[in-house]
Every structure is written in C-alpha cells, then in structure tokens.
Predict the 3D structure of the following.
Amino acid sequence: MEWYQSEILWSLIKILVLFFLIITGAGYYTLMERKGAGYFQLRYGPNRAGIWGIFQPLADGIKFLLKQETLPKHVDVYLFLLAPAISVITAVLLWSTIPFTPLIDLPFEVLGKSQVALQVLNPGSGILLLFAISSLSVYGVMLAGWSSNNKYSLLGAVRSTAQMISYELSLSLSIIGVIMMAGHFDLYRIIEAQNENGWFFLSVPGFLGFFVFIVALFAETNRLPFDLAEAESELVVGFHTEYGAFKFALFFVAEYMNMITVSFLTVILFFGGWNIPFFLRDMVSGMWWGPLVGVLFFVFKAMFFMFLFIWVRWSLPRFRYDQLMNIGWKYLLPMALIQIFMAGIYLYLK
Amino acid sequence: MENIREILFFLFAFVMMGASFGVILHKNPVKSALFLVVFFVSLASLYGVLGAEFLAVLQVLVYVGAIMVLFLFVIMLIAVRDENFENIGANKGKTMVVFLLVLAFTMQFAALASVLSSDDKINTKTEYSKTIDSAQNLTIEGNAEVLSFHLFEKYILPFELISIVLLIGVIGAVVIAKKNRRRLE
Amino acid sequence: MITEIWPIIIQFLFGLGFAALILTAAHIIRPKRRKPADSHPETFECGIPFSGDARGMFNIQFYIVAMLFILFDIEAVFLYPWAVSFLKFKAIGSAGFVLVEMFVFLIILLLGYFYIIRKGALDWEDPE
C-alpha cells in the first residue's frame, strides 16, 4: 500500500473538503438569514458588499478579525477562552457523523480509490454518537456564562443549560420510533431503510416524532422562539455578553454550523436523505452520477429546513421562561412517550 | 492497526490519570468538576478503543451530558469565589501527592513498556455477533443488540426493577426539593 | 461492526486546531491601541457602574430540572437497545412479550411523571 492510500490521509482530505463546504455554507447561511430578515420586515437586508450582498460574509469575517480584542478584567481567563473553543469543536464533531453522500462508484480512481462517500466517521452508533456529542455542547454555553463573571452572562447560561437539557430529553425520545422502524442507529442505514419503506415522516409514529423532534431542535439550537439564552431585550445578549471579535465569532460560526447539521439530520431521519423521487429513479439508475442527483435533492430538502429556522425566527415572538419549561416538560415529553407507545403497537401489528 | 489501539489505550489512560489528579488537586471546585468531565470523556474513549462502542456513547450521554451538568449547576450556583479556596491544600499534602503522582506515572510507563515489548496484546476481539435464528439467517451484531437480547430475554426482572429504582429517584428528588422550599418560605 | 476511534480523534484535533489557529490569528492581526480606555476591560453593564459579581445563588427549580433530567435520561438510555432490536425480536416471534415488558417499564416511570406534575415540581412561578 502506497503512503497516499492510507486511511488517515483520506479522512484528512474528507475533513478539509467538508470543512470548506460547511464553513462557506455557514457564512452564506448568515447572509440568507439577514436577507430573509430584511424581506420579512419589508427592507432590503445587506446589499452593499457586492450584488445582493454576496461578499457580506467575507466582509463580516474580516471585520471580526480586525476588531480590537478585549479581555475583561473579571473573567477566568482559561475558561473564558476555552468556552468558544468547546462550542466550535462540538460543532465540528457533529457534522463529521453526517453522511452527506452515499457511497459513489467513481468511473476514475482518486488516490487509488474508486468508491467515495463524503462522511468522516461512519460509527455503528451513529445517531447516539451524535446526541452524545451534542450533549457536550452544553459546556460551551455554561462555561462562557460562568467564566464571564457577569450577571447577564450567568443568567443566560443557566437558563440556556436548563432549557437545553429539558429539550434534549424530548429530542432523544422523539427518534425512538425512527430507530425502531429502521432497526439501526447508523444514519446511512436509516436512509437505506427509507429507500425501501418510504419516508418515515409519512408513517404513523414518524409523523408525531417529527413534530416533537423539530420543536426540540429549535430549543436545542437556541433559536427563536426559544432563544432565552440570548434574550437581547432583557439580558443584553446572554451568555456571550463579554465576548467580542473572533471569540464571539466562534460562537456564531458554531451556531450556524449546528443549524446546518441538524437540517441535514432532520432530512436523514424523516425525509429519506438522498433518496431519489420515484419518477426519476429509472432515469438515473445505472449511471455512476445517479447518486449525485440524490445528493442534490438531499441538499434542497436540507435547505428547506435551514430556511424554516429563519422563517420561524422572524415570525414568532419569544416565549416566557415558565412557558418554555412547560412546553418542554408537560407537552413535548408526553407526546414523545405517546409516540413510543404508538410505534411499538404499530410495528407489532404491521 | 492493532498498534494504534495500544497507543490510544495508553494515551487515554494517561489523560485519565492526569484528569483525576486534577480533580483532587485543583482549588477551584468548578475546575475540579471540569477535570472530572475530561476524565469521563477519556473513559468513554477508552471503552471505544476496547470496542464497547455503545457503552462509550452511553457513558458520555449519561455521565457527561446529565450527571456532570447537575454537579456543575450545584457548584456554580452556590457562590464559588476563588478567594474562598486559597488556604486549602497544605504543603505536606502536596509533597505526598506529587510523590504519588510520580509513582503512578512510573507504573504506567512500566506497564506500557512491558506491554509494548511483549507479545501479549490487549484483547480487543470479543464476540460481537451471533446467530439467533439460523432458519431465517438472523444475526445480532453490535453492542446494543447483544445487550438488548440479554437484557430483555434473560434479565427481565432486574430490568423492571430498574424502573422502580428510577421511580424512587424521581419521588426522592421532588420530596427533598419541596421540603427545602417550604422551609425557605 | 466495531468502529475505529481514530477518525473521531483526528476530527477532534482538527476542531481544536481550527479554534486555536483562529484565536491566535485574531490575536496577532488585531489593531493595537497604545492605551485602551479605562472602562474597556470592565464588566459589561448598561451604562451604570457594575456592582458585586456574578457568583450568586439560584432558584432551586433549576436543580430540580437537572435532577429529573438525569432520571428520565436513564430511561431513554434503556429504550435505545430495545428500539434498535425490536424488528429482530419480532422476527423471532417474541415481539409481543418484549413490547409488554417495555410498556410496564414505561408505565411505572409514568407514575413518577404524574407524581411530579401533581406535586407541581415542574411549575415555575407565574409572573402574573
């Protein structure tokens, strides 16, 4: 085996390619968000940096890099710097488990390989590993709030942590139906199972599970109407009040990366991933680029959910904290449990 | 590839030892708790190295994602100030601890050297798949399925008892919290 | 079926490297003022002097939520192996038995849930 065929080199290449795609995606997602916000509020949004503000993400990046750096006096320096790093590391680890493409048989060889799937890790415990990593992201928020030694930050962090763990419960219960129907934790095989049986969204337990899942996702990513962590009208900006320049930008990048990841995850779990619609299936079968058409559909479906995040954010007001906790514990949790009962009976009778 | 496992095993063992010393040596309880988080994550990685993937994931989900969050909540939110902990840890104790640290690390090195030089490799080959129904050619594979076939077929009573233990936990949590609140009012 | 762990480690190192690199780069590139304003490194407060620090006590409700989360999270953990092999249990014909088994487990825990609701342990103070 030549040195360039080693698995380590391969995973590095995949990581770099995906990182480039996702960080660019995150940049343009911010532009999409600001443009969307503009149109929702009957204004234009950013339109100075290039046509339709196409260079806006670049300009933002340079601005973050050139800002004066501040390190407040009262903070716990190590934890203060560690917190944004934890956020970004968990965000990076999260997208490494997502299968972005199926295994594609290339007609040519790249570095001695003719089969490529754009996925860094393919763990047998796929979805569980993803939840385990996302449960680590609580620490970024928590440490940012505590180490800042600022009342606004701490309040934002405590609220956010309690919120995230409450909704994590509904989130992890809401996919039980999907796991039962697929019989695997592996995201790749979950998509394959939908290839045979149709989208899980269209099945009885999957339908209910999807609603619990999507509501819990909004809370997990701290987006409106659940953005109590930031709540700019009462807490300045919550847990990252004391952060500026690129330290803030890391939180920002992590948030948008996470939103991209969970959009893809939603499509994988409930909407069939890269499955090709039935009317196109015969046309592309046998072609080596057939799976790429599926990937195109995959990306479009994910983009719908990315847009949904923006749509909801600029349409709904924020919940009060007691309402938020009530929704999580008294509505979503029972719904998730009912979904499990339904899934059990449904699969037993089927 | 076997060699990578060996190296990773000892890497995580070292991280775990370092982190556990951090837990007992650090003055600030918040940072002690964070060292414990590092410890649990490397313990999970160790399970991962040994092939117990499901256990590794659950270790992170339950210990790091839930239990340590509660620990940190409790520590962070009862007014932990750095100056309160200046005087903890006398010098005599520190010398003792440094001695123990050196001893422990030496033992680790010795273990590492002996394993790397001998032919006895760490056993990572456990049986992960077995046929449950030869007529339909069904096999269970992976930690989770093996676990569930043991848990739900063989150990039914312990499994149901777990739910009662959890029920008692739920009631206990509520009773304790409610009692304290009444006293405050 | 056993997943190799080293791709996760590479990915972790990559994330760490990215965060470290970008923070260092920002540290080097940033404009340096000879003397920052006096108020610059102070704790942020909306226009009035900051008093005290952020090391206070918190509402006990947050602890209750964290404790209950642990208990229900463990419940979810037991559901995973059950869910993933349900189809195989069905294939060997013991699906009904396993289903009832899990329903008993869940119903016992639901008793706990109703207890919490009855006792109002999840009720946050209504500001109105």
About this structure: Chain B has a mean pLDDT of 76. The first helix of chain B runs from residue 2 to 25.
